[in-house]
Amino acid sequence: MADPSLPGQLYFAQLERFTSSVSAKDYVTAAAAARASLPLLRDWLKDPQGDGKRLDIRIPALSQGGTTMAIVGDRDGLCELRDLVQSFDHLQAYRTEAEEHFVDLDLFDRLREAIRASPGILQSRIKTVLGVDDGRRASRLISYLEKSGEVRRAKSGKTYELYLADAEMPKASAATIYNEPARPGSHRRDRSAGRPHELDPKRVNIVPLPPSPNAWERPVELPATEEAFADPQGGWSEIVVKTIEKSDRPDPAFRKHYSTRGGALSFDDLAKSEASLGAPGAVMFSDASGRPGTPVPLHRDAYHISVHPEGEGFALRSKSGVMTVYRGDLAIDFETDLEAAPEVAANRERLGLAESEAHRALRCIALTPDRNRYLFTHVDEAWCFNREGERLWGLRMPAKEPTRIRVGGSSFGTAAEIDQALQVMGLQMPVTPDEIRKRYRQLVRELHPDVSPGNEERMKAVNVASERLTGLDPEQLDGSGGGEAGFEIVISFGPAAEADWIYAAAFSGTGETALLGTYAGRVVRVDRSGSPTTIYDVGSVPVRIVETESFLYVMTTTRLYVLDGDRLIALHDCSPKCDLLVSGGMVLLVEGKGVRVFTEDGRPLGIALTKAPIRRAYVDNGDVVVETRTQRGSFRGIRAVPKRPGDPFQAIPMRPS
């Protein structure tokens, strides 16, 4: 039955065409798809069945779609877009943006003319030349022109020289622009495609965890401070603040940080540092005390980065599908062209994917600590090889169920509500799903109205608690009914979209097993032979998986899970912009102006706040060190490690100043 609260399937087909075209920088096709979706949106909105039942969905055709129409000069399409948003109150939020698209259309033309008239004009001067107030807007449009291939940008100090694609460029300027090296070819021994084993969830141990929502209704935010560095919870005995010498200040271009066995790797993935001149980016290693080494230019772009916390070196996948493995000294170990793998061609044919979608279909790479094995994923398949090119195993995820938007019900809870749910059940962390199931069945026997009248409210609370702890309805736990009412809206796409895409991958702390995180919210553990052994169900897309020799960390856009085997030992809510670092026996959740610090097993130690944006955070000999552009704050002397129930109190010795 058609659901009037959502647009029809034709709209979602155009949405898929639009998003894949934007990813491929094919703005002509993207603009056409955005415009084709406008009458479909109009038909949906004027349908009286949907009055008052519209979901507050994001409509890319009215935002980025308008920008793509502006870049290709489709004024008629922008007029149609403006008329649509003016016709329906539901689209009121897009009206200002619809007018701004016309401003962009004019600015695109003026930018082209300014660059044509003055080849090599500095991007920093564009705002003045065009007489516009919003320099950021002009820079964003220049970025679109560069991605579309119309404009080339040559690094010049802290800005860029701008040239049209067909204009002559001085050799010195051309030398600052990265040109991808020739493809290395595949190092595969077997040129025929292997047949993947298909995961059967019914044959694998499933660990249901408190489900993670795609987004929180109220954002998870740290408090603000007006002090350079602040300890709002009193977690440390002192904060030692030092001014960073200009020559030692962290370069903000190195914005992605990963912990390793001996220190940390920092990546400039946008080629904004001096070391990346003429290269697609740069990498820098800092030792355990935070002392940075010399930045090294990257050989290819860092479209996907894989760093093992227990290893040395790293692997990068370029947008073109080439995997480059680097040693601990930042020199290249070996390369292979993943796009040339026969398994990729076979899976592309199975799913009916166009070659233009290749960079999107190749997703993750992962490397063992000793760099002797690696894996890559293509849509819903994962393939593992050794460094000699021998295929070790392949695994395909089953088709996921159609996307379900849960409305109502009680399956999602904040970390505080999860703690309350455990209390209702008479449990505490660490806890396993089996313990929750057994406890639930015990409480049903004790509290069911047929056995113990008068406990209806208590039984209802137990049902809600069990659903929050497992994501399963009470019927699934016991078959006895109960739980809050809710309904689901189902969205179905084409074969590739219905595949359960693998969005995160990592090897375990020892490198013996692999972990694969899928769009359906599963994290699948795979043994060395390629057999799946465990499925951790977290309810939404895992964006980061890290496993040390002691613990497994699974991070979604809203939550961090800490696991020891099948036992959930800690759970914390987080924001989508959070970064995870596991180093020096501590876990850091790093945000723009604050760091939440935990023990390795997930117990909270404290919060380190800053007034200025954080450039880098790390652990140095027990100190949590946070660096802004000009200052370094060392949070010293953790007062105590919070104990778990039944554990003795642990005091941490203060480090002498």
- Average of pLDDT: 88
Low-confidence segments, given as residue ranges, are: 402-410, 479-494, 648-657
Strand percentage lies at 25-35%
Helix content: 25-40%
Molecular shape: globular
Strand order of the largest sheet: 4-19-18-17-16
Biggest sheet descriptor:
5 strands, mixed
C-alpha end-to-end distance: 70 Å
Question: Count of DSSP E strands?
Answer: 38
**How many whole angstroms does the radius of gyration measure?**
27 Å
| DSSP summary: helix tally | 15
SSE-based structural type: alpha+beta
Biased composition (Basic and acidic residues): 191-203
Protein name: DnaJ domain-containing protein
Domain J: 420-481
InterPro entries: DnaJ_domain (IPR001623), J_dom_sf (IPR036869), Quino_amine_DH_bsu (IPR011044)
Q: Descriptors for this entry?
A:
657 residues; alpha+beta; 5-stranded mixed sheet; 38 strands; globular; disordered C terminus
Task: Summarize the structure in words.
This protein is of the alpha+beta class and 657 residues long. It is 25% helix and 29% strand. The protein contains 15 helices and 38 strands. The strands form ten sheets. Strands 4-19-18-17-16 form a five-stranded mixed sheet. The protein has a five-stranded mixed sheet with strand order 5-25-24-23-22, with no helix packed on it. Helix 2 crosses helix 3 and helix 5 crosses helix 7. The radius of gyration is 27 Å and the shape is globular. The termini are far apart. The C terminus is likely disordered.
